[in-house]
Amino acid sequence: MYASLKALLHRSPRDFGKPTSLWTRDLVAEVCFEEKLTRTLVSGETIRATLQRMKISWKRAKKWLTSPDPEYARKKTPATG
Question: Which in 5, 28, 53, 69 has the greatest CB count within 10 A?
Fold first, then answer.
């Protein structure tokens, strides 16, 4: 199962018909059940513990952009930011 879970995480949730491109632990659990990687629907906490045993760290996706441009703050407008 570990290899299958790792392979799943390297794909987009959209490959499985989900409306997002970002994985959450609960979404991983849902897709694992749908893809028959687990016999029952497990929790996001179970996914977290499994990833920890696999020595895979889970990092939350960041939703902001920054730029190395020193004028970035001045150029940024409400329409872009």
Answer: 28
Domain locations in the chain?
Answer: 1-81
DSSP string, 9-26: HTS-GGGGT-S-SS--HH
Backbone dihedral region for residue 70 (phi beyond 0: left; psi -120 to 50: alpha; all else: beta): alpha
- Whose CA is closest to 44, among 22, 25, 24, 23? 25
Helices (H) and strands (E) in the chain, counts: 4, 0
Per-residue pLDDT of 39-58, as tens digits, reads 999 999 999 999 999 998 88
- With a cut of 90, say whether residue 62 has pLDDT above it: no
- φ/ψ of residue 4, rounded to 5: -65, -40
Looking at residue 79, what is its pLDDT? 61
Residue 40: CB atoms within 10 A of its CB come to: 7
Beta strands in the chain (DSSP E): none
